[in-house]
Automatic annotation (TrEMBL), chains A, B:
Keywords: DNA-binding, Transcription, Transcription regulation. CDD domains: WHTH_GntR (cd07377). Pfam families: GntR, UTRA. The keyword RNA-binding does not apply. InterPro entries: Bact_HTH_transcr_reg, Chorismate_lyase_/UTRA_dom_sf, Tscrpt_reg_HTH_GntR, UTRA, WH-like_DNA-bd_sf, WH_DNA-bd_sf. The lineage of its organism: Bacteria, Bacillati, Actinomycetota, Actinomycetes, Pseudonocardiales. It comes from the Bacteria. This is GntR family transcriptional regulator. SMART domains: HTH_GNTR, UTRA. Residues 9-77 form the HTH gntR-type domain.
Length: 278, 278
């Protein structure tokens, strides 16, 4: 792929644009060395001075890092990682790392949910909550949450400003978000999302969506969260051999809280299980 | 947000474009009802005939479904789901559902890995493997894999055409992919990826990246897989209470395979554990 010598754009900008595209597409991942100047000259059919100007432009944009006597490398992105296997909300994950996540509430009012939210929640009597989460003053994600209205009476926008919805559900309503299934997609930003997240319309967003049930396995929330693709990475641990043991808060038939769990015996059993399995 | 009456594009195309953007951005998710004709007329400040033409265009593109006497809804996308918590490869996940995943090998040759792959594999003596996975003749994902060269002597492209890399590693080399950590990102397609995946440059792709270790906890592969955003969804189960018990294939100090596992005793222990925990 060469450059367009008859186009109106300077050659160095064309070279820079091609490399920028490969960096943003992760085709040249963070930490990867840029091809040598000689290799880039040959690939694009341009002079070394053109390549130097292109790379200088990428360095000025913070996309690559030039190092004395060593290859230029793709810069690590300024991004936040999110463990998506935990029901723990974004707020708690940031708080644990000592980072402040701010939240502005854009909307909280009764509204009919879309079909997937309605199917999960089992009701159309819902509150629609729209929030923007920010770190260092810059938006990180836009979150739309549907809550069964009868489970959160009196919920006010100011309760959720710079606060955690999950914490509020637990402390004010005794509802603990425990588990659910999530879907992850890449989508293109529409105008509303691009405006709210300070990105370009049509650009990629990382979407996390799903329902969460409470400690009694009752549906508690359905949410759709769009994340800035340049700021957020989801981490997932995978294995073909992990067996999960759900340690639930159980209830008896009358809905009474359970008696104390024999944790010492449980620990012994887990230890023996480990030995039996080698 | 109204329409541009002095622009060169017909009003119905402008209305259709705004709605298309919201559908593709998941702001109007699959299953959601489109606002009523009256609401759309008011929002865009256009006549009902313009709205009808716009919605007819979306229906012709398969983005919405019109139903006699009921609201028009956003169509479910034609997409494939991938469980990302399992080390099981895409090939096996499709085979289990009776779907045929085809694979073309675009490149297999010795090459130096980028920094993250090198750090994980602990060597720069690697093979670079580039594959396109297709379902129904249409590309689903583009996968770049780095393998330690000394662990897969004699590996040929034809061994991997329409085949599973993980299966081949297991049967031909005795190397079983067992676990790892994955990162999930949304990225914009560059020209190479857009061409290989039949999408638009700059459009969203769903990226899955990470390293996998084998049954002896040795690094086996590092891969980056770009997925078509309109065809692939990742499913993840989340919980704040799941404790994992890793049932590993153990080895003794001499690296000998382990003796038989007492599965009956293991099952008893798990059962008692369940009772103890309520």
């Amino acid at each position: 792929m060469g450059v367009d010598r008859r186009g109106s754009r300077p050659l160095h900008q064309q070279v820079a644009q091609a490399l920028r595209q490969e960096i943003l597409g992760h085709d040249l991942p963070p930490g990867a060395a840029l091809p040598s100047e000689a290799a880039l000259c040959e690939r694009f059919g341009v002079a070394r001075s053109v390549v130097r100007q292109a790379v200088a432009g990428l360095a000025a944009d913070g996309l690559v890092i030039r190092r004395q006597g060593r290859p230029t490398v793709v810069a690590p992105p300024a991004e936040y990682r999110r463990l998506v296997q935990r029901a723990t909300g974004l707020f708690e994950q940031f708080a644990r790392r000592g980072q402040e996540l701010r939240t502005t509430v854009r909307r909280l009012c009764p509204a009919e949910p879309p079909a997937p939210a309605r199917a999960f929640l089992g009701t159309a009597d819902t509150l629609q909550l729209e929030r923007v989460r920010l770190v260092d003053g810059d938006p990180l994600s836009y979150v739309r949450t549907w809550l069964p209205a009868e489970r959160v009476p009196g919920l006010r926008p100011e309760d959720l400003t710079d606060a955690s919805l999950h914490q509020l559900l637990t402390t004010a309503y005794g509802l603990r978000p425990v588990r659910g299934r999530r879907q992850v997609r890449a989508v293109a930003a529409d105008d509303m999302l691009a405006e709210a997240l300070h990105t370009e319309p049509g650009g990629p967003l990382l979407l996390l969506e799903g329902g969460t049930t409470d400690q009694d396995d009752r549906p508690l929330e359905w949410f759709t969260a769009w994340h800035r693709a340049d700021r957020v990475v989801f981490d997932i641990d995978v294995s073909d051999t992990v067996e999960t043991v759900r340690i639930d808060a159980p209830r008896d038939e009358a809905g009474e809280p359970p008696g104390p769990v024999d944790l010492a015996r449980a620990r012994d059993l887990v230890a023996e299980l480990g030995r039996v399995l080698g």
